[in-house]
Amino acid sequence: DAPVHRAWTDSQWRMDEAEASRRRDLRPSHTVFSIDPPGCQDIDDAMSVRVMPNGNVEVGVHIADVTYFVRDGGALDGAARARGETLYLPHARFDMLPKLLSADVCSLQGGRDRYAVSVMWEVEGLLEAAGFAQGQPLSAQAIPVKNLREGYVPKSVRVHKPKTWFGRTALHNRAAMTYAQADALLHDRRNKAAMLDPQAPPPPGQAGAPVARALWPELRAGVYLLALFSRSLKAGRAAAGALDLSSDGRELDFELAAQTLRPEAYEEPEHLEAHSTVEELMILANGSVAEKVLASPTPAWPGAGKSADAHNGDAVLRSHQPTPAREVEPVLRVLEGAGIAAVAALQA
């Protein structure tokens, strides 16, 4: 845990350039950004979009590299294993790792250099599906309004799996946005300026901080490409039998009184396209890493494992057992009674 001790007395941690040189350094070449709830401090994932010379689009998902700071078998690792998770309560949270790590030096904060573990896909057909011109930078692309309508799903987009890259990276998060900021940017809302340059912003680095105006055109094009890509991913999963158990917006967020912790107000959160965009990218990242780990006779990335079997003791793979028929049958009867045809995945 040596790298952590140097950070304990200085929250303005600085990246070790020698370590950065051993990684794929995305800082000079990639516009990395994140999308999270307002005021989020523990930003654990970020995204990037880059048009490649061959006309394909490189999409990246970047996860905070906690393992650089928390050594396997060290004191912090032992404490984290004992806790197992960060516990969220209505009035408090109990962190799995010290806040200086989870909300500072490990967090992919806006405007900061950070270490990450990344998955990067080469996506074919996305530029054409978006209606973008070849050879132009993202900041100069015009977004066809018709493609922003909810029903538009590109048909000819696919991930070129052999070109998928896994590895450790160094990055700079150029914009720590909220879901509302990303939505205002994508759909060019009237309140875009107020959203992206708020009068009462959170502290620097947290989600919702002001976004530099010079970045707006490139970020809008990037979020647009990711939105179309995620629509294609979601449609593909649905066609393969994926079951969507989302609440479809029927949720309530309660505001609790400071003293009694009793609900005193509530609101119904709005589900924006940015939510599903991030969800689909994380599903794709999880699936890609699982496939890589299972298929690799050697570690999936440098330092990922010590044995010849990459997933022997170094990866946790969650495998859901098939649902017993006796548990599915009542659901099928309810659906049938309501006149709803069950999907094949439920009937299998």
UniProtKB/TrEMBL annotation:
One of its GO terms (biological process) is mRNA catabolic process. GO terms for molecular function: 3'-5'-RNA exonuclease activity; RNA binding. It holds the Pfam family RNB. It comes from the Eukaryota. InterPro entries: NA-bd_OB-fold, RNase_II/R, RNR_Ribonuclease. Residues 23-348 form the RNB domain. This is DIS3-like exonuclease 1. It comes from Phaeomonas parva.
